[in-house]
Automatic annotation (TrEMBL):
Belongs to the transketolase family. This is Transketolase-like pyrimidine-binding domain-containing protein. The keyword Isomerase does not apply. The keyword GTP-binding does not apply. It comes from Enterococcus moraviensis ATCC BAA-383. Residues 4-169 form the Transketolase-like pyrimidine-binding domain.
Length: 308
């Protein structure tokens, strides 16, 4: 499992779920090659639907299928799953209270050479305003599989944000992901909350800070909505907070944490993320430097909030 690309985890898990549940089906938007879902067509037959490059129609079709009792797993690029098809997602899936699982891939800088049109820094912000939905940004293959399985059995609208390629394995598969967070490092001076590809950067930042005598805990806060308020308040009682996300600092992980902190346990805080910029062409490592999403940026933010 740990060596699998996230797209392989997705395809394998959907196939497993579909073998056990005849109501599971997969919808694709002309990305079977990119996402590796081609084999699902062979395994699922007419329960695999490729709508072509028509993401709004993909959401509408999923809604109709959900009404008849199917459990649709919907995949496309993250910006097209949210920004492009937002009205259908909001009304046909959210407002109608349908059970559906939307998987938006290659978010933020991981869109790389597809450039600004395919590089969403706003998808989480859009999805957060839909009432009673659930939002995850996964960081690890074991975590991704567990969340897909949970979304299959739970009810409601789910949005799962993930890369397609291989992610660094952070877990063993034995973890309990039900609380919406996992503490990956203990610390006494403050907290770094991160999600997705920024978890690895956060861990590196914490290691660098440790060498300078600064101890911060690192928490993978992968369930962005509903966010676990208890762990955020607990962290605020410990000390200053830094959040790190591959997303605009407005409306995403940092905003959600700040809302909880402000209303319950005010503390000094800084958000690492994209600031007033659109996407652009480039490799992930280059773009992380451009947008200030590297471990060094997190480290500097921690030192700032700690006055070090």
């Amino acid at each position: 499992m740990k060596d699998l690309e996230m797209r392989q985890v997705y395809t394998n898990t959907i196939q497993e779920l579909a073998e056990k549940d005849q109501n599971v089906l997969a919808l694709e938007a002309d990305l079977a090659g990119s996402m590796g879902t081609s084999k699902l067509k062979e395994k699922l037959g007419n329960r695999y639907i490729n709508v072509g490059i028509m993401e709004a129609q993909e959401m509408s079709a999923a809604a109709g299928l959900a009404v008849t009792g199917f459990v649709p797993f919907i995949h496309t690029f993250a910006p097209f799953a949210t920004r492009r098809s937002f009205d259908q997602v909001f009304i046909s899936l959210g407002y109608a209270q349908n059970h559906a699982v939307i998987v938006g891939t290659d978010p933020g800088v991981t869109a790389e050479m597809n450039g600004g049109t395919h590089m969403p820094f706003e998808d989480v912000a859009l999805m957060r305003v839909i009432p009673k939905n659930t939002i995850y940004e996964v960081s690890d293959p074991y975590q991704f599989k567990a969340i897909l399985e949970y979304a299959h059995t739970a009810k409601g609208l789910f949005y799962i944000r993930t890369i397609r390629k291989q992610a660094k394995s952070l877990y063993t598969g034995e973890e309990d992901f039900s609380k919406g967070y996992c503490k990956l490092k203990e610390g006494t001076d403050g907290t770094i909350f991160a999600s997705g590809i920024m978890v690895e950067e956060a861990l590196q930042a914490a290691a660098d800070l440790e060498e300078r005598g600064i101890s911060v805990q690192v928490i993978d806060l992968f369930r962005i909505k509903p966010m676990n308020e208890e762990i955020v308040i607990e962290a605020a009682k410990l000390g200053p907070i830094v959040t790190a996300e591959n997303h605009n600092i407005i409306g995403g992980l940092g905003s959600a944490v700040a809302e909880i902190v402000t209303e319950n346990q005010p503390v000094k805080m800084k958000r690492i993320g994209v600031k007033e910029q659109f996407g652009q062409v480039g490799k992930s490592e280059y773009l992380k430097k451009v947008y200030g999403l590297k471990a060094v940026d997190i480290s500097e933010a921690v030192k700032e909030v700690l006055n070090k």
